[in-house]
Amino acid sequence: MITLVIHGGAGNITPAMMNKEQEAQYTIGLKEALDKGYDILKSGGASLDAVEAAIISMENNPIFNAGRGSVFTKKGLNEMDEAIMNGFDLGAGAVAGVRNVKNPIKLAKEIMLHSGHVFLSGGGAGEFALSRGIEMAHDDYFFNKARYDQWVKIRDSNFTQLDHEDDNLKGPEKDPEYKFGTVGAVACDEKGNIAAGTSTGGMTNKRFGRIGDSPVIGAGTYANNNTCAISCTGHGEFFLRAVVAYDVSCLMEYRGLSLTDACNTVIKDKLVKLGGEGGLIAVDAKGNYDFCFNSAGMYRGVRNSEGKELVAFYG
Q1: CA–CA distance from 293 to each of 10, 64, 232 (Å)?
Q2: Is there a contact between 56 and 66 (Cβ–Cβ < 8 Å)?
Q3: Given pLDDT bands bounded at 50, 70 and 90, which one contains residue 164?
Q4: Which of 12, 65, 97, 159 could be cross-linked to 154 through a Cys-Cys bond (beta carbons 3.0 to 4.6 Å apart)?
Q5: 278-293, pLDDT tens digit by residue?
Q6: How far apart are CA 315 and CA 45, in angstroms?
Q7: Residue 224: its pLDDT value, please?
């Protein structure tokens, strides 16, 4: 069974927080990403390429905190983190703190295929992007008024603000309207190969070159044909400490748990005990899939060859 699952972030996403226009925007954005990725799977393409295509679609859509819609750092810059992984051979590519790359998920894939490394960062990653002919974009391309206003509210403080949640803010700085998210995709192709990818602009007002879980293989992104492909979204510090994506895989491999049981154990038990909020999407080599989150909602979608098609936001 061929399957594509995507997410656009998790957090305090409730009907009270979204108007009809926002619901329509996210519905269109998620469906467009499903279309791009699933067309590849339907034509016999590889899961890795489907994941890349779905994520590119979301990176190009400024409603998501990835690529063009990335949030602003303490210095007023856009710095992006991404990873992609192939379950067939455990090939992986990741990048952190990269700037001015139009579609950073393309760079992550290029790192996997042509760098001889797995993880590049900052200026060096930018140099590699130029050497491989990856399309770059000026700062103006990444400027988003809503993201900028979000940053201006807290830039003179030491607050950082999650892309999807800001309960850590108090008083006049608190604004619950911002629900923008990390994006990700997982897929199973007709050969039973699976892949995962995750892309993010990180946290608003982040300092010191902070890196979350998204580009870290095993924390925010993981794929292994023997178990599952995982893309996470949420408060990255907790996902890093819990090694969430690999933990799901380990529960399947070493304890024989099903995909759903493994996801629930990690997200709804282990992560909750740590105090972590967020979720993940998952698929296995038979095309089984799962959405799992402990927050109020998660922007998500799925399409498979059995006719399943869903776009949803709320819990």
Answers
A1: 7, 18, 9
A2: no
A3: very low
A4: 159
A5: 999 999 999 999 999 9
A6: 32
A7: 98
User: What is the per-residue burial (b if ≥16 Cβ within 10 Å, else e) of 189-202?
Assistant: bbebbbbbbbbbbb
Dihedral pair phi/psi, residue 220, rounded to 5°: -105, -15
**Encoding tokens for residue 69?**
């819609």
pLDDT exceeds 90 at position 130: yes
Q: What is the DSSP letter of 72?
A: P
- Could you give phi then psi for residue 52, rounded to 5 degrees? -60, -45
Token pair of 62, please? 């400024």
Which listed residue (3, 182, 200, 204) is catalytic? 182
160: pLDDT strictly greater than 80: no
Residue 12: per-residue pLDDT:
87
Active site residue 182: yes
Segments of 12-158 assigned E as strands: 80-86, 91-98, 119-121
Place of tokens 């679609």: 57
Q: At 132, list the tokens.
A: 């491989």
For residues 231 and 218, is the Cβ–Cβ distance under 8 A? no
Question: Cα separations (Å) of 277 from 9, 44, 288?
Answer: 11, 36, 24
Tokens standing for residue 226: 């023997």
Supply 233's token pair. 């979204």
Identify the CA nearest to 94 among candidates 130, 74, 124: 124
Q: How many angstroms separate the Cα of 31 from the Cα of each of 57, 255, 293, 310, 311? A: 10, 35, 20, 9, 7
Task: Provide the residue count of the chain.
Answer: 315
Residue pLDDT, tens place only, 137-154: 999 999 988 888 888 888
Contact 43, 61 (CB under 8 A): no
pLDDT-derived band of residue 162, with 50, 70 and 90 as boundaries? low
